[in-house]
Amino acid sequence: MRVLAAMSGGVDSAVAAARAVAAGHDVVGVHLALSTAPGALRTGSRGCCSREDAGDARRAADVLGIPFYVWDFAERFKEDVIDDFVESYAAGETPNPCLRCNERIKFSALAERALALGFDAVVTGHYARLEDGVLRRAVDNDKDQSYVLAVLTAQQLARAMFPIGDTPKPEIRAEAERLALAVASKPDSHDICFIPSGNTQAFLGARIGVRPGKVVDAETGTELGDHDGVHGFTIGQRKGLGLPGPAPDGRPRYVTAIDPGTATVTVGAAESLDVWTIDARGAVWTSGTTPSGPVRCQVQVRAHGGIATAIAEPVEDAAGEPGLRVHLLEPLTGVARGQAAVLYQPDERGDIVLGSGTISATSPHRHTVDEAAPVASR
After folding, report:
1. Which of 48, 49, 98, 193 is catalytic?
2. Cα–Cα distance for residue pair 356/280, rounded to 1 Å
3. Which of 120, 155, 115 is nearest to 135 (CA)?
4. Which of 60, 79, 117, 346 has a 20 to 30 A CA-CA distance from 263?
5. 297 catalytic, yes or no?
6. Average pLDDT over residues 318-335
7. Can you tell me which residues bind ATP (predicted)?
8. CA 204 → CA 28, 250, 264, distances in Å?
9. CATH code at 160?
10. 306 and 356 in one domain?
11. Are 132 and 37 in a shared domain?
């Protein structure tokens, strides 16, 4: 096949491209320029899209003997990922920009251009597995990225390749060393790629500005303090609340609700964070087929953690579009609007990704559900 390898300048995408070459594919490397003002150097393990990253990707392509290009997706990235990130926080949500980048850039904008140019598939260095069109968790659970790929449709997965998902990260670095790839020991990227400083609140504040509001007590409604904007908070947050101390009983306070309309941040006790029901919009089923009724599964609400057994059912969201309602069989805490609810089906060969939706509402109320609901068929 003729495949396009997305090369970020890191070790994972370099080895993914190398494996595509070794498999006999006709491979072309491409680095996505996602920043309108790329820095010359990274800040340790923070940041991306620097000139250093582009240079590292080019040198890896040279070692592999494949053509290499840089494609400018900066404006599309700003509109579809950065602006979405800012707007979501301003609306009191907690978005995942990596998930949006996969959905709208790498497997939409990039894939569309690749197909238009005659490529059969896009290769990336994501830690996930594709087996006969079925998306699964990676072998290396600590590096697993299936959560941020769960927004992909069956059509998009049919044009994707994840060559390194069957290998633990240390072995990927060792393989890069054997291939004489200079990125073999390059640090992994952390935090949000377009916020190299790591200071998300400062980044948001510079774009949203000051939108003052009140911090109130969940039980009494008492005003406890002021804040400069709901974008500085997320559900379950304990530190940085700007309050003089804990509750009168000595217990810590947590953010339990965010109302962007009134700019009100509500805080309360840890037990008030328990969630039993999740509603999600924009449902995607990776098989391409929507289940006919409730299915038993596991739901994950954060990229690393927040997993519980659940009964999930397809519904229509408030706009009449495909959505999800997830009834938890055990409570989860710190579940925020804007996060993804990703559904998994446990399997002896590794968890299967059933689908996902963007969390739009949660409830502390437990509903009676059929706990004997079947698993989704593939």
Report:
1. 193
2. 8
3. 155
4. 79
5. no
6. 92
7. 6-13, 32, 125
8. 37, 32, 18
9. 3.40.50.620
10. yes
11. yes
